[in-house]
Design a protein that fits this description.
single chain; mainly alpha; 7 helices
Length: 170
């Protein structure tokens, strides 16, 4: 997981090198902008996971106790696996506005659709936050779910509304 997180900028660069020759200059500027925003959002998610979510998760895991006779033993392997999975998932989750913007450009998602199914999205966001966090405490869950919900709202603000089709009555 560490290699995926650290190689992400290079992977974005290679995608750009592959795609850029096939684009017109105006498309090239748009894709360059999208890749830059994607890179920035990925690292914002990684930093949020690193500095905020994982310390809270580790604090909960270290204080959680099944009984007084059972001692907590967190192995290095378990620590690193949880850490890297959480960091990678947070980085990928922060790509939500960019993905919805790209889907809106393709005509697959519209602002009215996202607004209409906001309650469903909240349930999906809470489930995703529960999967991302290795703990079951509501505080850590909300530390992940609130930024994801704010990203969902940012996605709604970023995309344009569906153009109304002209009918014969108009």
């Amino acid at each position: 997981w560490m290699s995926v997180v650290t190689a992400a900028p290079y992977l974005f660069y290679e995608v750009w090198r592959f795609v850029s020759p096939a684009l017109y200059p105006n498309e090239r500027r748009g894709v360059k902008k999208a890749l830059f925003i994607g890179r920035v959002m990925f690292f914002v998610g990684v930093l949020l996971g690193y500095f905020m979510v994982y310390p809270l998760t580790l604090r909960f895991l270290s204080t959680y106790q099944l009984s007084a006779t059972i001692e907590n033993q967190i192995s290095l392997n378990s620590y690193i696996d949880n850490f890297m999975m959480l960091i990678l998932c947070m980085g990928l989750a922060f790509e939500l506005p960019l993905v919805t913007w790209l889907l809106s450009l393709l005509g697959l998602v519209h602002k009215t659709f996202l607004r209409k199914y906001r309650r469903h999205a909240i349930v999906i966001i809470v489930i995703a936050a529960a999967v991302i966090t290795p703990t079951g405490d509501p505080f850590t869950l909300s530390v992940v779910a609130i930024p994801l919900y704010l990203l969902y709202e940012l996605s709604i603000l970023m995309i344009k509304d569906k153009p109304h089709s002209l009918t014969h009555e108009e």
